């Protein structure tokens, strides 16, 4: 079992107990990590404070990833409290309902900008903030969450698929930039899971059923399974892995039909 005792991490993307980022936070905390967990806006603050109450001395901070000031403040507070950082989990994504319902060709300039900013650019901004703190520890590990819609067309995934393609490409460029500082950057491509973000995609339940019918494992995955893969990538067992997109989808991606 990977031991995270004495390690500190930043978790971005917890909305509620169904969030994939929350399952990852729980798995890391159970292995000894001390965590900073952010919430997006006052609406989610209480949820996140209640959820994280059982963790060991969590640092709870506001973060809207569209704000450079809030990003800077998060890393200042983490450095003041933890004096460095070992890992970062990025689980923030957003697309407006209009963009997830209308035909893709109707994607608006503003909807595209917002989706790419929140779901892809934010990884670059957070990696830039995390890197100096990770260098203090002799290296670190960064992980983001993506979906196969980056590469293939899924009904109504639309602009989010384009954002995930940008995100996966950013993983590779960041891995190349930060690798010499012993900072690894990877993504997990999760199969579909019923979460708050997923509820915005019209017809999401038919995507879930398709996976149950077609994936080699004949089922969908659970957040705890993504979390176990995250423990591997973030911890010492994954020390030779960077610039990778690891599929945790019951094998669905291999199906030809
Ligand atoms: N659920 C799935 O089927 C699935 C599959 C593959 C990948 N993913 C990805 O996993 C990640 C986590 O999503 P989830 O399914 O756990 O849903 P979720 O709704 O629990 O998490 C999405 C998070 O993004 C945050 N967010 C949105 N806009 C933000 C902003 N401006 N600033 C800061 N945070 C912001 C939300 O607060 C929320 O915590 C996302 O990147 C998602 O695309 C999800």
3D structure, described in words:
By secondary structure, this protein is of the alpha/beta class. Helices cover 44% and strands 15% of the residues. The chain contains 8 helices and 7 strands, in the order E-H-E-H-E-H-E-H-H-E-H-E-H-H-E. It has a 7-stranded parallel sheet with strand order 3-2-1-4-5-6-7, with helices on both faces. Helix 1 (20-30) packs across helix 8, helix 3 (68-82) packs parallel to helix 5 and helix 5 packs parallel to helix 6 (158-178). The protein is globular and about 50 Å long. The N and C termini lie far apart (37 Å). 46% of the residues are buried. Nicotinamide-adenine-dinucleotide binds next to helix 1 and strand 5.
């Amino acid at each position: 079992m990977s031991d995270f005792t004495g390690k500190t991490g930043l978790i971005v993307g917890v909305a509620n107990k169904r969030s994939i980022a929350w399952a990852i936070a729980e798995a890391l905390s159970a292995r000894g990590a001390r965590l900073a967990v952010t919430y997006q806006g006052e609406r989610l603050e209480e949820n996140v404070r209640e959820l994280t109450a059982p963790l060991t001395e969590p640092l709870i901070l506001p973060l809207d990833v569209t704000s450079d000031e809030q990003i800077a403040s998060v890393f200042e507070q983490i450095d003041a409290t933890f004096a460095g950082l070992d890992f970062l989990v990025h689980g923030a994504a957003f697309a407006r309902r209009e963009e997830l319902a209308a035909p893709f060709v109707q994607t608006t300039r503003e909807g595209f900008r917002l989706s790419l900013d929140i779901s892809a650019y934010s990884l670059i901004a957070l990696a830039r903030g995390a890197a100096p703190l990770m260098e203090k520890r002799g290296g670190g590990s960064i992980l983001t969450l993506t979906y196969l819609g980056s590469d293939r067309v899924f009904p109504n995934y639309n602009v989010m698929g384009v954002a995930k393609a940008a995100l996966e490409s950013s993983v590779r460029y960041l891995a190349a930039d930060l690798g010499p500082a012993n900072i690894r950057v990877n993504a997990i491509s999760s199969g579909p899971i019923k979460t708050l973000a997923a509820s915005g995609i019209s017809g999401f339940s038919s995507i879930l059923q398709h996976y149950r019918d077609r994936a080699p494992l004949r089922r969908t995955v659970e957040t705890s399974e993504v979390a176990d893969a995250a423990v591997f990538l973030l911890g010492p067992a994954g020390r030779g892995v960077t610039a990778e997109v690891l599929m945790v989808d019951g094998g669905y991606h291999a199906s030809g039909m």
